[in-house]
Amino acid sequence: MLRIENLCVKIGDKEILTDINLHIEKGETHVLFGPNGAGKSTLINTILGNPKYEVANGSIYFNGKDITDMPMHERAKLGIGISYQSPPAISGVKLKNLLKIISKRDWEDVEKMVKHLNFEKFMDREVNVGFSGGEVKRSEILQIYSQNPDFIMFDEPDSGVDVENVELIGNTINKLLDKELKICERNKSGLIITHMGHILDFMEVDKAHVLCDGVISCSGNPREILNNLINHGYKRCIACYQKKK
Ligand code: ADP
Ligand code: MG
Ligand code: MG
């Protein structure tokens, strides 16, 4: 579904991502670990087509189509969606009304998801205005559910979220990515950024990557990589990347 080849990304004169290669098949969900400032948000914003990020080299393909130079709204039409790390608050717009505008699902289904996320009492509130960390994340998940994209990127869906809601958010992401279906029956793929890993207790992911200093320093089994990070931290990942260089 998503194929990234030799991607280098700049902001102004600064190279943020170097030679990124990433393949995510239909039905797969990958997780991206990495310390603060590694370039995780840059990567998914580049996939989305945010014009702030300049592709200095390489290509991005979505379902076989080269989207490297495609504007953001066209990528969204193709089925690429994002749940933001820190979305803005939108004063004057009720969550319910925003959902009615963006939703591609039956309203009944949206209402079921509202209930599942215990979000009924937020529907008449202004979007994200005065929401706590966990509430903002649930609001994002609800919006992405309503938009129903095929490829969903989640930027730190677990940061600033209490334990109970991490479980709720993890379960919901699983559902959004068709994880209760067999892999051949799934229509969705995902890329999830986290630096905690606790959310993986509640989610099924197929592969993990560690991004350090703008480079994917290792890829593999999510559990193994997470255990490695817990035991040794990112330093060891940086060390193995420097060896690779
Ligand atoms: P992460 O999501 O992994 O924490 P980011 O992708 O947000 O990292 O940032 C990667 C690097 O790019 C950081 O060093 C950050 O300071 C830098 N960066 C992000 N935005 C800008 C910008 N507008 N101008 C210059 N540098 C930026
Ligand atoms: Mg960060
Ligand atoms: Mg980030």
From TrEMBL:
Protein keywords: ATP-binding, Nucleotide-binding
PROSITE patterns: ABC_TRANSPORTER_2
CDD domains: ABC_FeS_Assembly (cd03217)
Regions that span the bilayer: none
Domain ABC transporter: 2-238
Protein origin, superkingdom: Archaea
Alphabetical list of Gene3D superfamilies matching this protein: P-loop containing nucleotide triphosphate hydrolases
Any one GO MF annotation of this record: ATP binding
Keyword match Metal-binding: no
InterPro entries, A to Z: AAA+_ATPase, ABC_transporter-like_ATP-bd, FeS-cluster_ATPase_SufC, P-loop_NTPase
Keyword ATP-binding among UniProt keywords: yes
PANTHER family: ABC TRANSPORTER I FAMILY MEMBER 6, CHLOROPLASTIC (PTHR43204)
Name of the protein in its database record: ABC transporter related
